[in-house]
Amino acid sequence: MTGPLIEIEIGTGPGAGAGGAWLPACAYRDLVPGRGAAVLLDGHQIALFRDRAGEVYAVGNRDPFSGAHVISRGILGSRGAVPVVVSPMYKQAFDLRTGACLDEPSAPGGSPAALPVWRVRLTPPAGPCAGDVAPPTGNAHRPETAPS
Prior knowledge:
This protein is an all-beta fold. It contains no helices and eleven strands. The protein is globular, with a radius of gyration of 15 Å. The N and C termini lie close together (10 Å).
């Protein structure tokens, strides 16, 4: 066994209850602590993060202020006890647990300044990942079934 897989619950939507399908995104080891990776699952661009304490977060990859899909390239940090990602575009901080923007309540046009959030779990490896993953190393994703 090479390590756990990260699975993301798809189909529940932001604010909805549990009960969606869990889809494998990537191997836990593919996420470099302190850096993000972009994942495409079921038509959703998701930014995955693993902080230095080992916690994993999944939020929308689209920056609500610029419209660019760049959140996975943001800087991880904290504001007090709140884990955040800072957008690389205009530097707004987003709570990784709730998706809320800590700097501004509204994006341009009056829409809420928040990222969608997905539930994440770790599971034992069960085969190749279903997601399209671009690890921060730039190398192609290695399915869990490949020799290490």
